[in-house]
Specification:
The chain is an all-alpha fold. It is built from 24 helices and no strands. The radius of gyration is 23 Å and the shape is globular. The N and C termini lie far apart (47 Å).
């Protein structure tokens, strides 16, 4: 059969055919991941196989599906390269003492009267400079929960403030994986996306801080912050590192690059190199260890200083510092590849287009379109418990709809983060929810009401959609 004859046999899928892969995804991921706890990647490939069957039915060839998948992956490669560089950067920042120094001094500025406000702000700063909400909760969050327990502050409220603050950086940091994935999924640019995020993130932050300040003043507790865990943490960090202001230069370099809108990858690579040099000069870390930290992550055994015995490091310190490295990012990269397999086949078969047209039949206004995007992201988060899928798949589905309505792509990328990235830690059966509970010792449903930033963002986004506030037009973006 000739190529022309093959093209003639192709047709658009029916609505039933189009939603079969979506239903299969919800069922397979909900049962497989949410209930049975299986790995997400093979489940995604199973869903992609279902989509492939539908694609064959409508006349799409295997080569065409592979070409589309490769195109999706190619578009996502800049973000994947940035994610890989983030792993190297975190490893060298740990070796240099950049992140440990921020933790060391950050813990000591806690004021019991503003415990919740402080918890939010400290974790927000750490997550912005590190780009990881999980790392912020596992580092500063663990220390802050220990302080809150000693002071008698509401632990559920503290956990909510810690998680909300951590996801502040996860939304706007150029080092964050989701911050890089959202503009890729939506077709916008990284720094335009970050700037547009402030429209929803700043009001949500103000609301959070007001609530935390009111609650904190009523539950100030004791002024003693010398819990044994914190004292041990500070003592061991002090014995491990030679802290000085120059260790903040890698952070300053990244922030300056963000403000000046320089290419992200070269900026992070430069910061990685600078941190590696500082590790050699100030912390007496060997070159071999610095290179190992970029690949496999930092380990406290790399620190060789008089008076510090790596074997005597407390478990909390090991959990705090032993991370980073490019290898740590490979799991996220594999997940992205598997998600693009599903998205590529769905796109080539025309399933996304059919479903989108059906949704657009109900979305008669910009507000309805944004509300539909929010609902899709939340549904994806509830079904899959995965923030990456909550960004990638709705982003692929709604990208053309925003263009058709004359809306800039950064509106979509912002909404994906407001309702995809930050909602997942509120889902008890998600990996993020389980992780946050393990780190803070507070159940997901207990801290969820206090993680104010995680649900006010998409409420504000819907409000903007219906009022037109903070909505960028496509022609403005082109200009």
């Amino acid at each position: 059969m000739s190529k022309d004859e093959t093209k003639k046999t192709k047709r658009m899928p029916t609505f039933t055919e189009s939603i079969i892969p979506i239903i299969a995804m919800m069922v397979i991921l909900t049962i497989g991941k949410g209930y049975l706890g299986y790995n997400t990647e093979p489940l995604l490939l199973m869903v992609a196989a279902v989509a492939g069957i539908i694609a064959f039915r409508v006349g799409v060839t295997w080569d065409e599906m592979m070409d589309e998948i490769c195109q999706k992956i190619a578009k996502g490669m800049p973000a994947i390269l940035i994610l890989t560089c983030v792993g190297a950067l975190v490893g060298t920042w740990m070796a240099a003492g950049t992140i440990p120094m921020m933790i060391y001094y950050g813990v000591q500025i806690v004021n019991p009267s503003f415990m919740l406000v402080t918890a939010f702000l400290i974790t927000a700063v750490v997550s912005v400079v590190t780009g990881t909400s999980w790392g912020s909760v596992a580092t500063m969050g663990v220390a802050l929960m220990g302080i809150a327990s000693t002071l008698g502050v509401n632990l559920a409220a503290t956990a909510g403030a810690v998680i909300a603050g951590s996801y502040f950086g996860d939304k706007i940091s150029p080092l964050s994986d989701t911050t890089n994935l959202a503009p890729v999924a939506a077709g916008s640019k990284l720094y335009e996306h970050i700037a547009h995020m402030f429209w929803t993130t700043i009001p949500a932050t103000i609301i959070s801080l007001v609530v935390y300040a009111i609650v904190g003043l009523r539950n100030s507790g004791s002024t003693d912050v010398s819990s044994e865990a914190v004292t041990t943490l500070l003592a061991q960090l002090d014995s491990m590192y030679d802290f000085n202001l120059l260790l903040l230069l890698p952070v300053v370099l990244v922030l300056a690059g963000s403000i000046m809108q320089k290419p992200t990858l070269p900026v992070m690579m430069a910061s990685t190199v600078l941190a590696g040099i500082e590790a050699l000069i100030f912390q007496s870390v060997t070159l071999k260890s610095v290179l190992a930290a970029t690949v496999k992550g930092f380990n406290v055994a790399m620190i060789v200083r008089p008076g510090f015995d790596p074997a005597a490091a407390a478990p909390a310190v090991l959990k705090l510092l032993n991370r980073g490295g490019m290898v740590e990012i490979m799991g996220t990269t594999l997940l992205v590849f598997c998600a693009f397999c599903f998205a590529g086949i769905m796109s080539k078969a025309g399933c996304l287009e059919v479903v989108l047209q059906k949704i657009l039949g109900f979305a008669k206004s910009t507000g309805a379109l944004i509300a539909s995007t929010v609902a899709s992201c939340i549904t994806m988060g509830l079904c899959t418990g995965n923030s990456y899928l909550s960004i990638l798949i709705p982003g692929e589905m709604f990208r053309d709809a925003y263009k058709a309505r004359g809306l800039a792509a950064k509106n979509l990328s912002r909404t994906l983060e407001d309702s995809g990235t930050v909602f997942v830690p509120l889902v008890p059966w998600s990996a993020a929810g389980a992780y946050m509970t393990a780190c803070t010792g507070v159940e997901t449903l207990d801290y969820a009401p206090w993680a104010i930033l995680c649900y006010t963002g998409f409420i504000i986004a819907i409000f903007y959609g219906f009022t037109g506030i903070g909505i960028a037009k496509l022609e403005d973006e082109k200009k």
